[in-house]
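Notes from the pairing session

We agreed to fold both candidates in a single pass and log them together. This is the raw record for the first candidate, unedited. Please don't reformat it; downstream parsing expects exactly this layout.

Candidate A
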Amino acid sequence: QVQLVESGGGLVQAGGSLRLSCAASGRTFSSYAMGWFRQVPRKEREFVASISWTGGLISYADSVKGRFTISRDNAKNTVSLQMNSLKPEDTAVYYCAADQTNPRIVTAPDSWGQGTQVTVSS
């Protein structure tokens, strides 16, 4: 199982930006899809973005399209989420996820990070 560690969360005003990063352990990072999810209290964890092993296939939730950008650096075993034009409704705990069974898109995450809090004030 791959170990994932997120960083970069914090408090930001509406309209501001944050960049989340996720560092992964293991030698096979470049062979599977990675993604970001988020969760608020009393709600299910929801999909935010996914990126394929090469970075050539990317998908986003409709709620973040045009504002968030996912990227990965296979040489550094990292995946990032650049979040711009943040809204109060983006407030959540953000989780990095790996799907080692799928190189193209995260459909069934098998590893999760510990989560990082993002709070957007109005």
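Candidate B (folded immediately after A)
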Amino acid sequence: QVQLVESGGGLVQAGGSLRLSCAASGLAFSSYAMGWFRQAPGVEREFVAAISLSGGRTEYTISVKGRFTIARDNAKNTVYLQMHSLKPDDTAVYYCAARRLQIRTTTAYDYWGPGTQVTVSS
């Protein structure tokens, strides 16, 4: 049974930082590209960041470049999203996702976690 479980969300003031974690089980973690997506009320789910099998390639949506960093630890079956300089517009439910082999910046991923809430106050 494949499971992706996000953690690390919460309430933070504008300008602050959070680190999200996603623990994976039930899959060959190192054979999956990993991604982070987010969805705010009333808007479509959007791509945030992705990382290739061994971490050699990363992709970010333009609104988070320079502020967010995605990383993975294949020995721990965990992917992270380090978020700095948070803005109220970053408020959303953040989802972890896994895709077999190939990195993508679309929502075409095979498995999804239940999400974790990030709220940034002004």
